[in-house]
Amino acid sequence: MKEVIINEKDNVGVSLDGNDIIPAGHKFALKDIKKGEYIYKYGEIIGRATEDIKKGEWVHTHNVKSHLDEKVEYVYTPSFPETDVKKATFKGYKRKYGRAGIRNEIYIIPTVGCVNNVCKRLERLSQKFISGSIDGIFALTHQFGCSQLGEDNENIKKLLCSIALNPNASFVLFVGLGCENNSLDGIREYLKPYGRDNIEFFNCQDKEDEIEYGLKIIESFAEKAKCYKREEVDFKELCIGLKCGGSDGYSGLTANPLVGRITDKVISFGGSAILTEVPEMFGAEQLLMNKCANKEVFEKYKKMIENFKDYYIKQGFPVYENPSPGNKKGGITTLEEKSLGCIEKAGSTKIVDVLAYGDQVKERGVSVLNAPGNDLIAATALAASGCQIVLFTTGRGTPFSTFVPTMKIATNDRISSFKQTWIDFNAFAMDEKSLYKLIISTLEGDYRCKAEDIREIAFYKTGVTL
Asked: Is residue 76 part of a domain?
């Protein structure tokens, strides 16, 4: 059996190929472990033994439980390397109002789910306008925008406006109904400080033929967008999103650390990255707190973690209501184990900012974003915060994509071979040079991710719907 031991402190190893007893990607004991003793992986505690475990035995949910304490005191002990910034460029679309885009696209955004069909018809009928350098015209439909109250009502407006601000969008058309809570007036007011002249609006109830009216606007957008050309832009204009889904026992060994190296490289070139999935930081949050650039960032991050834990508890759920059945089948036993692998995507550099849901990225470096672990909700939130691309690591595979290129990076050979129509890169060999080359090709439009013909968004809803 091929195996790997991650850290000298560990009392479990990972089987790389498996056998009749221990599946591939799962853990086995490196020595006898008594009931009640801690289980160590990544040099950190990932749980506690629920029974005596003999050396060589399978270590998983049948003999390990989470040790997470819902009441924990956090301290700030800064530990991170300083990064020397070097100059690097890629070919993107310069924007007069912000960072460069890696795609030249037109978005059609409904303010409310009632006009989804109108937006989808506009998308379908406007494909004839695609020419020149236009990469696509997409309707980003959703089921919200009316009957949400309080924070939810504000957040759907904030999210949709943030989507419209993504630099991959050359032009944006907001389509309203005319009687919804999430009104065009509110969206215009929110966007006013940004001074954008690439966004248009109309309410269907105000137009005799909303399809004809919308198509005229999109055609005028396309006439301008088709002439846009890629130019050399600085890496300071790039922000990458970091996300994992369908994680397995290989995630913290292959894909996530590999993406972490890419993150460090992007930061070294003056770029930015955003890490989210707050519930999948539980059990590893102290390590991230120690990477906070200063006490102010630490306090903001600590508050975000505590608020998310309170949210779980108030809903009657323990903070360790995770991993998923698929995670467990792939070899992940506890939330601590999942989280320690998850945060590898952020690399080794410091955390410079903490973003609220729907906020725009402001600082160069690694930011942490307040959003849940759900794949589409989190990926949408990353892109809405300004990420032009999402690097999505996966051990089990998924066909989805949010509204920016979503690159699927496999943790193991099996899923990469079995799902070639889903997977963009196999990280099992830990080939940093090849992954970086593929990312550059994607940024410059020479490579399109396997799921780029799919564009979806999802909203993080927490409150009441009428």
From this structure: no
pLDDT digits (tens, 9 = 90+) for 338-363: 999 999 999 999 999 999 999 999 99
Range of the domain at 156: 105-227
- Sort residue 43 into left (φ over 0), alpha (ψ -120 to 50) or beta: left
Are both 387 and 319 inside the same structural domain? yes
Residues 273 and 197 in one domain: no
CATH code at 109?
Answer: 3.40.50.2300
Q: Is residue 91 part of a domain?
A: no
pTM summary value:
0.96
Contact yes or no for 343/263 (Cβ under 8 A): no
Residue type, 426: N
Strand 425-426 relative to strand 406-410: parallel, antiparallel, unpaired? parallel
Would 462 be classed as within a structural domain?
no
Closest CA to 35 of 52, 48, 47: 52
Q: Does the structure show a pLDDT above 70 at 70?
A: no
Give the dihedral of Cα atoms 318, 324, 330, 334; nearest 10 deg.
0
What the block records as the tokens of 454 is: 């799919």
Q: In whole angstroms, what is the distance from residue 322 CA to residue 317 CA?
A: 10
Q: What is the pLDDT of residues 281-315, one digit of tens each?
A: 999 999 999 999 999 999 999 999 999 988 888 88
Q: Tell me the β-bridge partners of 259.
A: none
